[in-house]
From TrEMBL:
Keywords: Cytoplasm, Disulfide bond, Glycoprotein, Immunoglobulin domain, Membrane, Signal, Transmembrane, Transmembrane helix. It is a single-pass type I membrane protein. The gene is Hepacam2_1. Residues 129-178 form the Ig-like domain. This is HECA2 protein. InterPro entries: HEPACAM_domain (IPR052280), Ig-like_dom (IPR007110), Ig-like_dom_sf (IPR036179), Ig-like_fold (IPR013783), Ig_V-set (IPR013106). GO terms for cellular component: centrosome; Golgi apparatus; midbody; spindle.
Length: 178
């Protein structure tokens, strides 16, 4: 890695996960953020914001030289993990899905700043499925049809797959899926 600067070289590098972070509802989630710079700093400020689509960003917490100033509404939910700028969300709710914006300001001879966005998706674990048969007796003499209905109470990003004797069933003359 080669970095060339003309004049004052005071780049601030902010490293965040580049992919969407998946968390599980009810569990803690750690958003890992690292920063480094090559300037002398008298003050380091970290700010965390949260935005959902079609809404203004909300202030979650901030710090100056590691002294944290939380938004009182969220102070029990969000924690700054020093010495870097990582954020801990605990516990995670479905309403926490969205973009988290971290901004770092470093004051020395001047002020250098950088900000990054982290996308968070919240997954709800899939509950045990229940299967209902129609007719409920499950007995079909020779020519009748039977309908199997699979339902579950909770879960995000659910995919259904029917199996018979451990092998996948595919649509055909004997099976239709809806």
């Amino acid at each position: 890695f080669f970095h060339f600067c003309a004049g004052i070289c005071s780049a601030l590098k902010l490293t965040v996960p580049s992919h969407t972070i998946h968390g599980i509802e009810g569990q803690p989630l750690h958003l890992s953020v690292d920063y480094n710079f090559n300037a002398t700093a008298s003050e380091i400020q970290i700010i965390w914001l949260f935005e959902r689509s079609q809404s203004d960003p909300k202030y979650l917490l901030g710090s100056v030289n590691q002294r944290v100033v939380p938004d009182l509404e969220y102070q029990h939910k969000f924690t700054l993990i020093p010495p870097n700028a990582s954020l801990r969300i605990n516990p995670l709710h479905l309403s926490d899905e969205g973009n988290y914006i971290v901004k770092v300001n470093v004051r020395g001879n001047g002020t250098i700043a950088a900000s990054q966005k982290i996308q968070v998706a919240v997954d709800v674990p899939v509950t045990k499925p229940t299967v209902h048969t129609e007719p409920s007796s499950g007995v079909v003499e020779y020519v009748g049809n039977i309908t199997l209905k699979c339902t579950l109470e909770r879960g995000t990003r659910v995919a259904y797959q029917w199996m018979k004797n451990g092998k996948r069933l595919h649509a055909g003359p004997n099976y239709t899926f809806s």
